[in-house]
Amino acid sequence: MYNQPKPTKDIGVIGLKISWSPEASDELLRRYGDDAVEWRLVYDTEGCGCAVNGVPALWAVTGPEPDDSAADSTPFKLWHDPRQAVFFDDELRVSFNSEKMSFSLASDGQIYTSRLVLADRR
Q: Signal sequence span per UniProt (predicted)?
């Protein structure tokens, strides 16, 4: 009988890259404190009625969930559920609009939101 290799958990970077504007980094630290250095990108479907109807959100966290993967991200650590990666392009940008006091999440192909939901889940 054929011996299949056992699956291994990938705890490294799996293709998602996040860049943060200096304004976004500064504002996150101002709002959440200097210890807010780990974030989780989620496609939040709570209250949206369907698993494909959701909104992107960033949660301040103390570490990854058991199945999370790390994104290529500086200056913050960023975690995400690899099953939700289908909802995002591989390269994303987080920026901050000081006039509207809001964060945005975008890629070269689209703007996901100009009012990114933030939550402190630490």
A: none
Residue 54: predicted pLDDT: 75
Residue ranges making up the domain that contains 52: 14-120
Which pTM value belongs to this model?
0.81
User: Domain tally for the chain?
Assistant: 1
Q: Is residue 35 part of a domain?
A: yes
Residue 26 to residues 55, 67, 108: CA-CA distances in angstroms?
A: 23, 29, 23
Q: Say how many C-beta atoms besides its own lie within 10 A of residue 89's C-beta.
A: 15
Helix (H, G, I), strand (E, B) or coil at 50: strand
| pLDDT on residue 31 | 97
What is the rounded end-to-end Cα distance, in angstroms, of the chain?
A: 47
